[in-house]
Amino acid sequence: MNTIILSTKENSVDEIANRAAYILRSGGLVVFPTETVYGVGADAFNINAVNKIFDIKKRAKDNPLIFHIFSLDMLNTIAEITPLAKKLIKHFWPGPLTLILKSKIERKFTFGLDTIAVRMPDNLIALKIVEKLRKPVVAPSANISGKPSSTDFEHVLQDFHGKVDCIVNGGGTVYGIESTVIDISENKAILLRPGALSIEDIENLDIKVALADKWELKKRSPGTRYRHYAPDKPLILFENQSDLKSMLDLYNNAKIGYMGTYKLMFDLDKKIIFRNLEEYGRMLFSTLRYFDSVDVDIIIAQLPENKGIGRAIRDRLIRASGIDR
Ligand code: TXA
Ligand code: MG
């Protein structure tokens, strides 16, 4: 398949959005940037196009997609907007928060569920594409299922060149980590996926966010049933400097790729040191991809504390390492 490449370097946002919306309207797939990660999008009401996303991603059929919307009017046509939803929307949209709400549309469009995942991305290209299509766009992260999500144009090319109708190059994404998913369909807030928006920010509004236990989570959030974000090389995690030291002793014959915020006093084959957790989050997936492409045998990564953006980084690393099984 010929993949059309559109870039903000050569085209205006309006031109890009017009062409992308045209392709979506004809049943095609378009990869576009959001503020979190790149998404591979289809017209949410074109079942054939939506099925194509599952095929090219090799995604499990029971793992539903997020509806990307551009206005509250559009939201109102697909989901029930409760007072709790209104409050969260007022503070955090557009932005990296996905809400699970009661659905108003036929189940054949909601993967058989009576709930629906919705979000309004904080990215001009993404918003304009949805606006011009005048319908919601369903879009999972633009990576082959199980692999690290795409946070830059090059990653999308690696995974999807020749497999989608169009890729929009919008440069690196702002957060580098997916949206936070909160289920509020039963009028209390339950965290289904930690993400770029921290729980603390939500709780500052006097909204208590419950953490679902492991089995509850697998039931409510199909995405958590599968291994995710994994690099090809073994990924080994540590929590503190003394663990790191023991680990390096243990693997002293291997070529090590290190990632974390701790500065290292000694030399390793490859090390990527982040200035802070925001940078760690932004570069997490690209660093995993980078280590897969260079001459290291294993990846050793620091697990940050379970708070703020650290919670999402931990979650992705634990899933990527496979120790969650
Ligand atoms: O930042 C993001 O959210 C990115 C960008 C492209 O918007 N999208 C993304 O989509 O991460 P995806 O498909 O990789 O993750 C969607 C998550 C999955 O864990 C899925 O199980 C969950 O949302 N989900 C979707 N609909 C749901 C529903 N009705 N109930 C519970 N979980 C749902
Ligand atoms: Mg994903």
Secondary structure elements and pairings:
Elements: E1 4-7, H1 13-25, E2 30-32, E3 39-43, H2 47-57, E4 66-68, H3 72-78, H4 83-92, E5 97-102, E6 115-119, H5 124-133, E7 137-138, H6 153-160, E8 166-169, E9 180-183, E10 189-193, H7 199-203, E11 209-211, H8 214-220, E12 235-238, H9 241-250, E13 256-260, E14 270-273, H10 277-293, E15 298-302, H11 309-321
Parallel strand pairs: 1-8, 2-8, 4-6, 5-9, 10-11, 12-15, 13-14, 13-15
Antiparallel strand pairs: 2-3, 3-7, 4-7, 5-6, 9-10
Helix pairs in contact: 1-5, 10-11
The structure holds threonylcarbamoyladenylate and magnesium ion (MG).
What does this structure look like?
The structure is a single chain. With 325 residues, this protein is of the alpha/beta class. It folds into 2 domains: 4-218, Alpha-Beta Complex (DHBP synthase); 235-321, Rossmann fold (3-Layer(aba) Sandwich), CATH 3.40.50.11030. 34% of the residues lie in helices and 19% in strands. It has helices at residues 13-25, 47-57, 72-78, 83-92, 124-133, 153-160, 199-203, 214-220, 241-250, 277-293, 309-321, and strands at 4-7, 30-32, 39-43, 66-68, 97-102, 115-119, 137-138, 166-169, 180-183, 189-193, 209-211, 235-238, 256-260, 270-273, 298-302. The chain has an 11-stranded mixed β-sheet, with helices on both faces. α1 (13-25) crosses α5 and α10 (277-293) packs parallel to α11. The radius of gyration is 20 Å and the shape is globular. The two termini are 36 Å apart. Bound molecules: threonylcarbamoyladenylate and magnesium ion. Magnesium ion (MG) binds at residues 140-141, 149.
